Amino acid sequence: MKGDKVFLDTNLLLYAYDAGSPVKHGIAVRILEDLWRSGNGILSTQVLQEFFVNVTKIIPKPLSIAVSREIVEDFLKWKVVPVEGRTILRAIDLYKKHKYAFWDSLVIQSAIEGGARWLLSEDLEHGHRIGDLTIRNPFLHE
User: Fold this and answer.
1) Which pTM was predicted?
2) 141, part of any domain
3) DSSP state, 91?
4) In whole angstroms, what separates CA 47 from the centre of its chain?
5) Contact indicator for 9, 122 with CB cutoff of 8 Å
6) In this structure, are residues 120 and 6 in contact, taking their beta carbons and an 8 Å threshold?
7) Does residue 86 carry a pLDDT above 60?
8) Helix 10-17 and helix 45-57: axis angle, to 10°?
9) What domain range is 64 assigned to?
């Protein structure tokens, strides 16, 4: 994955800021550190929105709104793919063709539009390829 653009699903961000699952937390932190160093990380507006809601309300030890806002602001330094009308229409086509849930299809489409080679997600089918994009679950022991 070195040198390749990497799109992160929301769950990777959440594990990095929630130490409730120590192994996954460590893996997520290492991935984020690598992407900060390389500058190869990609997110979408959808992922940042989901992250904010979940990190302030859903995780066992929620972060404050102020801290969460700072984290989101930091991630705006990465490449951020906006979810626009055409993105939604293309996600609907992926949804129809590949049978992923719509919100997952929107993540996949955003990764494609961002030029990612890899999409890291715990929730999607590990190893599935869509064009030049490959989905990878970094928490699997291969």
Assistant:
1) 0.95
2) no
3) H
4) 6
5) yes
6) yes
7) yes
8) 40
9) 6-136
